[in-house]
Design goal:
Layout (H helix, E strand, L loop, with lengths): L2 H17 L22 E11 L9 H16 L6 E7 L2 H9 L4 E4 L16 H5 L18 E4 L3 E8 L15 E7 L8 E6 L11 H22 L6 E6 L5 H14 L9 E2 H5 L13 H8 L2 E6 L4 E12 L13 E10 L13
Parallel strand pairs: 1-2, 7-8
Antiparallel strand pairs: 1-12, 2-4, 3-4, 5-6, 6-7, 8-10, 9-10, 11-12
Helix pairs in contact: 2-3, 5-6
Length: about 350
Amino acid sequence: MSKRVICLGGLIAMVPMLLGPAAPPAVPVAPHEQFPKAAPGGLSIMAYNVKGLPWPLASDRTADFARIEARLLAMRASGSQPHVVILQEAFTPPAKAIARRSGYPYVVEGPSRDLQSPVRPEARDRDFIEGASFFKGERSGKKVSSGLVLASDYPILSVHREAFPAFACAGYDCLANKGILMVTIAVPGSASPVTVVTTHMNSKKSSGVDPARSLYAYRRQVEAIDHFLNRYRNPDLPVILAGDFNASSAERRTYLTAHSAANWTTKRRLPIDNALQHCLKPHTPCGGALPAIATTVFEKGRDWQFFSPGYRSSIQVIGMAVPFGRERDGTMLSDHVGYGVTYRLTQALTGHSPRRRSAA
């Protein structure tokens, strides 16, 4: 074979690289993947762990990210996109870019790699801190950000972010500066805004350490969320907490649900509910023909959404959609499911709010 033929073949092979990746083919959006079109006082929120890990923890996922963007753009073209998209594990630039490339005008990120928590260790943390392992990434410092990105169609009025305490992590999770992101969003047709909070908590098996150590870090992170909400949440407004809670064991679930009921609501203990669990009940407005994978998501205890009313405005769940479950060929675009919940903001449960302690 001549050198000219070899060179020509090489140039042909390089064409896709020179032109960039081909746009993924448009795929029709199934009914259970769509959100209802915007209605006054309505807000749909989708949380999705997109597995945007840096190399060598994950291979190049640009093609999967492009398919996620294409689906969100197709939903936007039909007016059925989620009003708010929350990403976890968006560590790499291509993963972070999903929000902008999907047409969302308001985008904020969670704690950066260098943001430090104001929470200091206590005496009870001494043994845990001394047991940190360099080989498990617990003494290597933060290498990446929190990986949290929130994108909204509606104006974001305020932003609060906080990293988990540097000591409150276990295993390889310590390499990421995980934490909490809170925004206040103005919802068209609603008498009051809504507070949206997201987080990504310490993993269990993936952390690479024994369950007891990861559980201790998990509990300290739950307590960090307690303090964060106590400082920054406005009890007049309804709140939605959506993210990767990694509540994959009975011990974690018990601790998380107890603290959410006691510390994530208002001082008058207005009710708090798990939206996914609520929608799996057949006789609720959001119940019905949900894909079977929705039950699996709830049982795994990772990707949950909690919601609770405020003094000025209440909140109801009216729908659920699963835009990112299993593809038609059985594959998934991430190792998590991307589902969303549609809420309706309604009139207040009480006529007035109690005096609120000023935030620090």
